Amino acid sequence: MWFLKFLLIVVITYLLGYLFLRVILPWLLKKMVRRFAKKMNVQFEDSPKQKKQGSINIDYVPENQNIEKTEDIKGDYVDFEEIK
Fold it and tell me: What is the DSSP letter of 69?
């Protein structure tokens, strides 16, 4: 009797797993991909319109324009002659 219960549980588990992998999982993945595609379409539709070619727009201007050059920190230039 315990063998029949075990066999029934294995068969039911197999059928539920088969149903999940063949029917439910692909349906869920399609639904998720469609939702993601819809979000991406909305995001691209909300993006600013195309600008004319050659136009220049500055979106960010740094507050501190008086930053020292980093060339001074690198070191001194040493002139050398090649000896043969």
Answer: P
